[in-house]
């Protein structure tokens, strides 16, 4: 085995992800990862691999290093853009400030939970999903400041794939899919954002069901007894942020082998649940958005201009205000029909967790005794003297 292949496999072994199920595929991926794939192997897309192993985390890493300029890089056409129905109407959340959201908290630690309300796919993306046979959603949420008593910030990551149980069968409709990542996070369904600040990324790619990827899905459908069209692939709650790089390498290598297509992709972006965290997340132009309880709509950046800011979200769908509830689903099909979007629900609440930079204030002054309490104390002291 060559040194490059050996290093490639050792990296995954350290991550604890090269299990018996993954080992045969990782050996094939190690060969494909070389600059010149052997005959008969699928082409390796280095841009996909580089996205997962470098680009996607760059805003988070830049922030930790105190560099905010690269976080303001202009978005690409398929970049995940979050829009939110605010007092300004349905606009990109990144242009909002805390003042645009009623009751936005000033500071403190916050707990958040997220789940996917609905997909609404365009005819073109439906056709692509039918052709490629699988669609995979990955969600990553990370803390910035470690929790009290922990040496490193934590991350939550979840992946789920839409596919038929058997190859060459019709793929279930994406429009009927809902996903709660908390179901794969067990007891850690709420994510504590220390100081109200975190980063998240949402990515969805479609990939042909072939090679190692196809073998993996075939094996999982045989092993897991599930009738759900969305197959949970991965759920890692509360792992060290540094551990994500190994997951990124595995996902990048798998997606890069063979043909794939993005529905939307996004870099880490700062999510701020308090005014204080919004201020600390960088100056104007930094990639950040205020995070509050409500529905956010994710769609490709190049489609945002087609939105009417007067649209509202009802049952996870974009419709005009005051739409008859019985006609929501029909009307929604006429709104930006050639654009795919996903609606997510976010819940934000106060957290009992403490960050590593929060300690009990020393030498707190004792409360002043009332006159009655002071008299009782004096009487007790006189009795003790006697």
Task: Kindly describe this structure.
The chain has 386 residues and is α+β, with helices and mostly antiparallel strands. The chain has one domain. The chain contains eleven helices and 15 strands. It has helices spanning 3-15, 23-32, 46-53, 58-64, 123-132, 182-185, 211-223, 244-256, 275-280, 328-332, 371-385, and strands at 80-86, 89-92, 110-120, 135-143, 154-162, 191-193, 197-207, 230-240, 260-264, 269-272, 288-290, 294-300, 312-314, 317-319, 341-350. The strands form three sheets. Strands 4, 5, 7, 8, 9, 10 and 11 form a seven-stranded mixed β-sheet that branches. A six-stranded antiparallel β-sheet has the order 2-1-12-15-3-6, with no helix packed on it. Strands 13-14 form a two-stranded antiparallel sheet. A hairpin with a 2-residue loop joins strand 1 (80-86) and strand 2 (89-92). Helix 1 packs across helix 2 (23-32), helix 1 (3-15) crosses helix 8 and helix 2 runs antiparallel to helix 7 (211-223). The longest helix is centred in the C-terminal third of the chain and has 15 residues, at 371-385. The radius of gyration is 25 Å and the shape is globular. It starts with a helix and ends with a helix. The model is unreliable at 1-25, 30-36 and 360-367 (pLDDT under 50).
């Amino acid at each position: 085995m060559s040194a490059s292949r050996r290093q490639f496999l050792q990296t995954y072994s350290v991550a604890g992800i090269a299990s018996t199920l993954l080992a045969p595929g990782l050996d094939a991926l190690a060969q494909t990862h070389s600059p010149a794939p052997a005959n008969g192997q699928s082409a390796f897309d280095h841009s996909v691999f580089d996205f997962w192993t470098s680009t996607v985390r760059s805003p988070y890493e830049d922030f930790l290093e105190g560099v905010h300029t690269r976080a303001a890089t202009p978005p690409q056409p398929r970049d995940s853009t979050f829009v939110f129905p605010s007092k300004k109407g349905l606009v990109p959340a990144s242009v909002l400030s805390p003042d645009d959201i009623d009751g936005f908290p000033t500071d403190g630690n916050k707990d958040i939970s997220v789940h996917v309300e609905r997909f609404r796919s365009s005819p073109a993306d439906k056709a692509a999903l039918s052709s490629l046979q699988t669609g995979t959603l990955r969600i990553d949420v990370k803390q910035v400041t470690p929790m009290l008593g922990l040496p490193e910030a934590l991350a939550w990551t979840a992946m789920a794939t839409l596919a038929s149980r058997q190859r060459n069968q019709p793929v279930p409709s994406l429009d009927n899919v809902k996903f709660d990542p908390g179901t794969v996070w067990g007891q850690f369904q709420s994510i504590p954002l220390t100081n109200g600040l975190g980063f998240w990324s949402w990515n969805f790619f479609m990939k042909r069901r072939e090679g190692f990827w196809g073998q993996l899905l075939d094996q999982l459908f045989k092993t897991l007894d599930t009738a759900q069209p969305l197959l949970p692939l991965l759920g890692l709650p509360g792992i060290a942020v540094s551990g994500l790089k190994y997951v990124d390498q595995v996902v990048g290598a798998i997606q890069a082998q063979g043909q794939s297509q993005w529905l939307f992709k996004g870099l880490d972006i700062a999510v701020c649940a308090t005014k204080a965290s919004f201020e600390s997340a960088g100056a104007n132009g930094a990639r950040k958005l205020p995070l509050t309880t409500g529905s956010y709509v994710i769609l490709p950046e190049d489609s945002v201009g087609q939105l009417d800011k007067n649209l509202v979200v009802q049952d996870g769908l974009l419709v005009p205000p005051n739409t008859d509830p019985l006609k929501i689903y029909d009307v929604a099909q006429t709104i930006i029909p050639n654009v795919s979007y996903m609606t997510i629900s976010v819940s934000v609440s106060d957290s009992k967790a403490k960050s590593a930079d929060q300690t009990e204030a020393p030498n707190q002054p004792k409360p002043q005794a009332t006159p009655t309490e002071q008299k009782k104390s004096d009487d007790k002291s006189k009795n003790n003297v006697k």
